[in-house]
Amino acid sequence: MNARHIRVLGPPTDEERAIAAEAAKALRRSIEDPATMGAESVVHIDFGAARHGSTWLPKRAVWITSWANMPGFTRSNGQYQHESLPGWIYARHEIVREMIPDLEALAERGIRPTEVTS
Fold first, then answer.
1. H/E run at residue 24
2. Is residue 4 in a domain?
């Protein structure tokens, strides 16, 4: 990745920290009781086949899942992310071990994740 394209985020606002705190709590609740996630919504986006020069690239698509009671939390093709943690993608097994602690660190100390841990 070209260094010019890396978006540096400023310190989180109080609102961003409050959203991260609520997101961490909601994720912990949903692990204990998945029914608290609310209704599931699924969107399919088909990008179609693309042409690169004289070569056709394979057809590409993405499935995006969100839940009514989990604002900002989505799953895209099996990977999870939260809008409070832009640029970070988590595997399912990393939600408890990494995503929730990252959200809590953002909420409690205003610290955004900076290093990949897995």
1. helix 14-32
2. no
